[in-house]
Specification:
By secondary structure, the protein is α/β, with parallel strands linked by helices. The protein has six helices and seven strands. It has a five-stranded parallel β-sheet with strand order 2-1-3-6-7, with helices on both faces. Strand 1 (15-19), helix 2 and strand 2 (39-43) form a beta-alpha-beta unit. It starts with a helix and ends in a 5-residue tail after the last helix.
Length: 135
Amino acid sequence: MFSLRRAKMVGMSVTVLIVDDESAMSRIVERFVTRWGYSVKAASSVAQAVEILSHDSVHLCVTDYQLSGETGLDLLRFIRGTDRLKALPVVVLSGSLDDDIRESLMDFDVATILDKPLDPLALEATLQKLLKPAD
C-alpha cells in the first residue's frame, strides 16, 4: 500500500496522472495539481495512459470520462485488471453522465466523480483526501 508519508520521507515526489484529450483542460488541471505540490504526468489517450502506467510510478489518476474513441471506463478496465495498479485511486471528470454510466464507474471502484466545469477546490480536496499521509 502506498504511503504518502514514507514517499515524502525518502524524497519521492507524489505523481498524479492526468488523462484528457482536450489539451486546454489538461493544462488547466496540470497547472492546479502542480501548484498543490504534486508531480504530473499527462496523457491524451488511453493508450498513452497505459504506456505511462506500465513504466512509471503514479500515485493517483485523474481522467476525463469521454476520450477520443474511448472512455475512462476503458482505462479503468486496464487499471483494475493490472495487479500492481488495482489499488490506484482514480478520479473521473465529466460534463454529464447518466446514472448507468455512474454505476458502471462505481463498479470499477472509482474514488470519486467530479462534474465539469471543474471546481478546483473540489479537486484539491479530493486529492488531499485520497493522498493524505498514512498514520
